[in-house]
Amino acid sequence: MDFASIASAEYAESLLRAGRAQDFDLQPIGTGPFSLEHQIAGTMLRFGAFRGHWRGAPAYDHLVFAITPDSAVRWARLRRGECDIIGFPNPDDLPAMRADPNVRVLQAPGLNEGYLAFNTEHGALRDARVRRALVLAVNRRVIVDAVFGAEGTVASGALPPAMWSFDPTSALPDHDMAEARRLLAAAGHAGGFDLDLWVATGQGILRDPRRIALMIQSDWAAVGVRARIRSVEWAELLARTARAEHDVALMTWLSDNGDPDNFIATLLRCSAVHTTQNLSEYCSRPLDALFARARSEADPARRAALYAQAQRAFARDVPWLPLVHVHETFVVSKRLRGELLQPLLSPRFERLRVD
Question: SS3 breakdown of the chain: % helix, strand, coil, rounded to 5?
């Protein structure tokens, strides 16, 4: 995993002795293809090519990250030649970007999922029939088309389709309001019920989380479920969901290493209840045992079969509502050559060259 990259133990020990532990992050020493030269918090990071890199130095001298939160400003800067690469483009701008002869749009399936975590310890949400009804009531296709356009794929289960061991036979059914009402009535909630829908502002790959929350709120209202949207900062959302204060929470998960254990097992294992991982507060001892078997199995085909079982269990119990898989998208100047994209959302800038 990226966060577990090798660093200098001697450097860390010297900083601790000097009382400057924060410099381990602010003035890092490592073995990568670039070295940090200068940074302005929230504005800019400047790296220089590391000439002693074991694979050879990058083909250019400097790599500069100009932090630009507004997608329209990023696109304008790329068109003016002020930068060579932009990420997270506005989906509405993609047709113009693809038509522009001076740029290339690079896109690959993302190993991620935007989802709505049901707190399975709270009230009506303890009942899998209620959770399934809430899934069926939400028109995921409409949400993905409206918010993500060509940058998103409708999620249908616990794993993204681009991840090995994905089981298409475990897909949740599509939007079905009549079945949603039937399930709510069978569970004793024909008149609906109230819940809180928690959402964070500025939430990464979800692009416009409040708009997503409003669309879910509208769909649920049609089957009598009254959702109150509670918007908080990301740090507060993590803290409060870790204490299981939420009814439902709009969340995201990005794969760290491309392995299904890091996805479905991390988000559903019993030991992660009441943490920032298993926000569904869902615990199944048989499923935990299955995850343990899958982790100890060396044969990939057998592991895939075990994770297919886990996905079927997910589809039965629906501990969360899968919404979207967001594509990895970058727009680059035509003057750049070489590979940029890789499966885990960490672009490899050292492989590029400038014509």
Answer: 40, 20, 40
Q: Give the model confidence (pLDDT) of 29-53 as tens digits.
A: 888 899 999 999 889 999 999 999 9
Dump pLDDT digits (tens) for 196-224.
999 997 667 888 999 999 999 999 999 99
Strands (E) in the chain, as ranges, are 34-40, 44-49, 62-66, 85-87, 103-108, 112-118, 152-154, 194-200, 226-232, 248-254, 320-326, 328-333, 336-337, 353-354
**Domains of the chain with bracketed CATH:** 2-108+328-354 (3.40.190.10), 112-326 (3.10.105.10)
pTM of this prediction?
A: 0.85
Q: What is the C-alpha to C-alpha distance for residues 181 and 114, in angstroms, rounded to an integer?
A: 25
Give the span between the Cα atoms of 241 and 281, in whole angstroms: 10
Task: Find, among 252, 281, 239, the residue nearest to 122 by Cα.
Answer: 281
Residue in 9, 15, 17, 42 with CA at minimum distance from that of residue 27: 15
**Whole-angstrom Cα distance, residue 337 to residue 334?**
8
